[in-house]
Amino acid sequence: MPNRAVVCIGVNNVAKLQPLLGAVQGANDFAEWARSQGCDTVLITDEGGVEVTAATIFNAVDKIVEAATYQQLIIYFSGHGIRLNPRDEFWLLSKAATNGSAAINLSESIDLARGCGIPHVVFISDACRTPAERDELTGIKGSAIFPSNPGYTGDGDNATIDSFFATAPGKAAWEVRDEAEQNRYQGVFTDCLIKAIKSLEPWWYDKTGEGETQLQVITSRKLKIYLESTVPSLAAKADIKANQKPIVRVESDLPMYFVDGTTLLAPLVNKAKSPSGSQVKMLGAFKSYNAYKNENVQFSLQTSDWTSYKVARKQAFHLDLDKKLQNNGLPSVSAIISMQEGREGNGQLFGLHNTLSTSLARVARTIPKESPVYNQELNEVFEATRVAYEETKKNKSLADKNAERKRLRQERGEIKLLLDGQAEVLSYGFKTGFVIQGVSIIGELQSPNWLASRRDSKGRNNSAWELLPNSYTGVIDEQTPTSLLLTFRGGNSTVLPVWPGMIGIVVVEDERVVSVNYIPSRQNWRYQGYASHAVQLERHKAAIAVASRYGEFFPNRNEAEKMARELRLMKLFDPTLGLYAAYAYAQAGNYKQVRDVLSYMQQSDLPVPFDVLMLARRHRIPDGVFVNGLERYAPFAPLLSQGWALLQPGNPLHKPYHEQLRHHVIPALWTTYAPSGRDLLFTLTHNPSFFNLIHQSPKQ
Fold first, then answer.
1. What secondary structure letter does DSSP report for 307?
2. How far apart are CA 176 and CA 126, in angstroms?
3. Which one, of 404, 412, 434, 409, lies nearest residue 542 by Cα?
4. What sequence ranges are listed for the domain Peptidase C14 caspase (predicted)?
5. What is the tally of helices (H) and strands (E) in the chain?
6. Among candidates 585, 627, 620, which has minimal Cα distance to 152?
7. Burial of residue 331 (number of CB atoms within 10 Å: 0-12, 13-18, 19+)
């Protein structure tokens, strides 16, 4: 049996934020379950006014990692959470509003967990994923709770990571009052999770192992299916305005699991004492054992035996149902439930689950197998299961189909905008420059080397700004990495790499950069190759643009690797595709491929995007692998805002000024700075000595 550890964190009170009512309770309940599983359990909460610190949590995790004896580690958190950008979210601890490090940097922690040496790591986040409501939280840095592993390379020696998020990006996670105990509150997500992992319902269990080592388990994948079906319903029941759909990313498969039901189920089933015939008849006269006791009739069956009897009856009914399904050429109940994966809010599963639960309860309490009613119950449940299977096989849920249609429409619209915009941009005829779409007015260009002019456009807002090098002062040095500081009228800024022979197309919404892509100019040798792949290229860019609006570039590890393989083939024509590919591989924990992306891009005549080099240097370079040309990168900070969560001291590209800039980064897909950061940005982009300093090659 695997050696397992659990760290439970519950924080009701964060200074200056609305107190929560159920976070500590959720952590207590999860810890109680973990102990019942035989897990080594650490409970950290702010109950009684105790301050919860990142150091306390780090020390607990570090001790577990250092022991090097565990096969699984579960990290559970219930409390306040914020999400600044894709893959850039934080769990807030007691003093997060006054101390930027008093939070858990979730992205950094997940990345470090891959190299911790524990084969299976599970993160559970019952917290909001909404933007920061207070200014002091927008520049939060947070702390990692996993130790760094100096020997970790990311070349296949990774932990398998399962991540459970209570809600979708940008959405709140809700609390509910316990119906039985009015003074008791708990998160909707935790409530559903606890019910699932304490379930005795046999269709949730899979078997792993052989003989005496065989276990009956509930996998993360089964929990994903259950939670995606039940959480939205419970949230809506608690508040009609609640829109809570959990996001669960599962990488694990058997023999890895979440719940070990062996010690709970086996003794009850194998050692159950069946009641005598007279007792069975008496049971049929009452709806439950509690009702029977309330009649004050003497009954010799002990409570423990009664529980055993009910479990055994449930298992027998489940086996009879599976046998009937098999005889009719249908999959088992467990297999039918597994078909529901990825179908958020699927009503078929929710209805089937309720039908099965209700029938099992009746069978276990009141219906002897010898009774004609038993077969009637079995036939009714069989029919409900058959209908659920047929409906699931031919249809996705209406909500899912509508969401998919909406997404496809958005992608088609985005592709049209991209293709129309790029055809228009190419008609301008310049070799190197930028076209800014979505802003009516460009603020002052803080460089004499660039000129801005307004054009009518078919793109967003029917207008665009054209930025070209000043023919007198702005000759582009193709050997020196160059960055452009662009300031909008409201004061927000962004910094973009200047790639000679490429035209950057920048899309801005509400003075925040939401999209950047580059196309080769007609004078560039890359243009012919680009023209032959334009539709395919723009389809990928459109998919990424739409996905980012839903808060995720790549929903899971497999999708990330698949997209990365496709993007890396086309990065020659647009360096931002190499950027996306590097992030996709990093999300999957495949840093060998990140370094391959870097190596390929370094062979180009263009500077490498800062983010690609940062990710490639994030973990130890294996012996015999040499990463060269590190001085040729642009700009001087992450292009995608999610990169800030991974840019930490210890990375060769990390500089002191990054900690100053971090406080000025505002929520946006591409790094956008508040007006307060403009002076520092001006110094970084226009001071030659500073420029030379920041582009020095990092130490090998």
1. H
2. 13
3. 412
4. 5-199
5. 21, 25
6. 620
7. middle
- Name which of 598, 658, 662, 610 is nearest 88 in CA terms: 662
Residue carrying structure tokens 């699984």: 72
Helices 372-394, 347-366: inter-axial angle, 10-degree rounding: 170
CA distances from 397 to 195, 232, 237, 279, 393 (A): 24, 14, 19, 45, 11
Separation between Cα atoms, residue 305 and residue 17, nearest integer Å: 49
Query: In Å, how far from its chain's centre is CA 658?
Result: 25
Q: Measured between alpha carbons, how far is 105 from 163 in angstroms, rounded to an integer?
A: 14
Only one residue has tokens 């949230």, namely: 235
| pLDDT band with cut points at 50, 70 and 90 for residue 176 | confident
SS3 string, 486-505, reads EEECCCCEEEEEECCCEEEE
From the list 652, 616, 562, the residue with the least C-alpha distance to 154 is 616
* pTM across the whole model: 0.73
Question: How remote is the C-alpha of 387 from its chain's centroid?
Answer: 33
Which region among 137-141, 524-528, 551-555 has the lowest average model confidence (pLDDT)?
Answer: 551-555
Tokens representing 326 are 């098999």
Rounded average pLDDT over 92-97:
91
Map residue 258 onto helix, strand or coil. Answer: coil
Model pLDDT, residue 312: 64
Determine the average pLDDT of the residues in 551-561: 57
Structure tokens at 232: 């939205």
* CA separation, residue 396 to residues 27, 339, 386, 579, 629 (Å): 35, 10, 16, 34, 50
User: Which pLDDT score is estimated for 309?
Assistant: 58
Phi/psi-derived region of residue 303, left when phi > 0, alpha when psi is between -120 and 50, beta in every other case = alpha
Give Cβ neighbours of residue 410 (< 8 Å, ≥ 6 apart). Answer: 546, 549
CB atoms within 10 A of CB 526: 19
